[in-house]
Structure to design on (547 residues):
């Protein structure tokens, strides 16, 4: 038990913590959730979120507070920015372990469930990035687990305390992403209580969590209302109701079934076991309260997100813990009955896919057969390493299919994604870094940007310009997600109308150092409006022009 606990902790540190600073910061999301807390630290305003000095009411403040705390502790660097997200994945894995260990199979099953969550493809990808979804998912997991512990607790005093704890975590989830926290909890808990035929408890139990959730969130809610009277209209009506009924911002209209393949792909390699474990769950465990709870926790929030018109891949992250619980319980019951055929088929199928992927990568790089290469001529070591990692994963899966001992099977099955995830930090193509991580390019030209330099950018690059040059006064040539903040009277002057830019340039910026940092297409389209730049440099899609 001690060795396996140390092994899982070591796995978490190896996959999620140690490599956090290896990759550069990507646009737009990672830089956005870096710049908001940076401006909080600089301004001392911890109540009203801002980007580029403009009001930004997309989310509440708790996620920003966590990122700001990490910056204060570790500095303003990629490691600090991603640390809260990574830590919350570890805490979610711990909660999944505790649930399964106590209610569904004991210590070893709990360990497998924790490792399963840590090695899900989407959980890993989001957990090592500076996004708020992992933080939100952790609070949802804590609230759900606390409720279930309270539901199974026979001592009234302990049950009351744990229910209050569930409400606290619900309030913290609200302070991270808003009203969707209440929707997810209600969507899972109400069907579960109906399934359990706990009609009286359904009316009686929720009041304590609701009251504690309100008490946790109320202080900030009141302060933001006193500071910004329009906040709740924008936050509730636009960022919640309109996001559900119609896609806005970076969302895209997707069909109802969109999340189902995303869920199955994001839960690989564990979702591949579902055809094998579903019959086991149906036959053996549907009367078990934890299985019922996990089914409701997984199914009904997923259906709610599927009904939304606006969809983003990361929204369904809270559905992964219950899915892993179901798969773990089904897998352990399947293997405990001495069956191996289904597991062998799944392992060999995934081994074949990884082997084919390795061969295709090597073929593309060596022949340019599709007409392009993933890696450039100076990145030979990356595609060799990538191909080798896929091949190694394939071999581990083959060994898992042949192992006689069930524990050895599972360990080898886990090792395949682990080796791929560990190396993923290091084999990102340079082309991707050029397009998604302009930080090195911006910092290279930082000597040309003084405190008095007038900076002009666009909706795609503005947060990166603010972050890397430590500014919150950048002018914008288009609005994007900052449209709401630009609508205030004290901020309208920050937007420049490109159709009138020649006049604005001569009138407002004459004899001043002006730097344009915008996308290549936009620069090319409106270049005729600008005077000839004193200096111009282009990297990928980013143009740096000094006038």
């Amino acid at each position: 038990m001690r060795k396996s606990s140390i092994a899982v902790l070591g796995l978490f540190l190896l996959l999620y913590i140690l490599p956090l600073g290896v990759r550069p910061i990507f646009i737009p999301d990672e830089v956005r959730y870096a710049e908001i807390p940076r401006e909080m630290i600089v301004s001392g305003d911890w109540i009203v979120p801002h980007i580029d000095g403009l009001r930004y009411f997309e989310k509440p403040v708790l996620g920003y507070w966590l990122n700001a705390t990490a910056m204060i502790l570790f500095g303003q660097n990629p490691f600090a920015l991603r640390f809260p997200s990574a830590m919350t994945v570890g805490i979610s894995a711990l909660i999944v372990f505790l649930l399964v260990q106590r209610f569904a199979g004991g210590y070893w099953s709990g360990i497998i469930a924790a490792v399963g969550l840590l090695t899900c493809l989407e959980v890993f990808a989001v957990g090592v990035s500076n996004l708020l979804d992992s933080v939100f998912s952790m609070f949802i997991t804590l609230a759900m687990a606390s409720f279930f512990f309270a539901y199974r607790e026979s001592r009234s005093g302990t049950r009351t305390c744990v229910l209050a704890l569930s409400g606290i975590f619900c309030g913290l989830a609200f302070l991270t992403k808003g009203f969707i926290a209440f929707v997810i909890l209600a969507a899972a808990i109400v069907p579960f209580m109906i399934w359990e035929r706990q009609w009286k408890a359904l009316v009686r139990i929720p009041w304590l969590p609701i009251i504690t959730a309100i008490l946790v969130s109320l202080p900030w809610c009141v302060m933001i209302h006193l500071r910004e009277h329009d906040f709740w209209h924008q936050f509730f009506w636009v960022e919640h109701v309109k996001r559900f009924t119609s896609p806005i911002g970076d969302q895209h209209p997707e069909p109802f079934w969109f999340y189902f393949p995303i869920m199955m792909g994001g839960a690989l390699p564990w979702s591949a076991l579902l055809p094998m474990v579903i019959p086991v769950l149906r036959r053996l465990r549907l009367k078990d309260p934890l299985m019922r709870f996990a089914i409701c926790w997984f199914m009904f929030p997923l259906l709610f997100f599927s009904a939304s018109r606006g969809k983003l891949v990361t929204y369904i992250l809270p559905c992964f813990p219950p899915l892993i619980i179901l798969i773990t319980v089904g897998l352990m019951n399947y293997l405990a009955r001495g069956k191996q055929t289904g597991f062998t088929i799944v392992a060999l199928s995934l081994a074949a896919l990884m082997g084919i992927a390795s061969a295709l990568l090597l073929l593309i790089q060596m022949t340019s057969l599709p007409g392009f290469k993933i890696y450039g001529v100076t990145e030979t070591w990356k595609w060799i390493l990538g191909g080798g990692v896929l091949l190694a994963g394939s071999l581990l899966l083959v060994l898992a299919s042949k192992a006689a001992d069930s524990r050895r099977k599972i360990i080898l099955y886990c090792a395949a994604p682990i080796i791929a995830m560990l190396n993923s930090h290091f084999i990102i193509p340079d082309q991707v870094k050029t397009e998604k991580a302009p930080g090195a390019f911006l910092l290279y030209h930082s000597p040309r940007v003084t405190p008095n330099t007038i900076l002009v950018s666009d909706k795609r690059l503005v947060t990166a310009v603010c972050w890397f040059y430590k500014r919150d006064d950048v002018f914008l040539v288009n609005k994007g997600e900052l449209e709401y903040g630009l609508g205030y009277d004290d901020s309208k002057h920050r937007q420049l109308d490109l159709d009138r830019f020649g006049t604005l340039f001569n009138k407002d910026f004459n004899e001043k150092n002006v730097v344009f940092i915008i996308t290549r297409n936009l620069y090319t389209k409106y270049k005729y409006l600008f005077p000839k730049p004193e200096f111009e440099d282009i990297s990928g899609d980013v143009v740096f022009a000094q006038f």
Remarks:
- The mean pLDDT is 90.
- The chain has three domains: 93-232+252-336, 341-434, 436-546.
- The chain has 25 helices and nine strands.
- The first helix runs from residue 2 to 17.
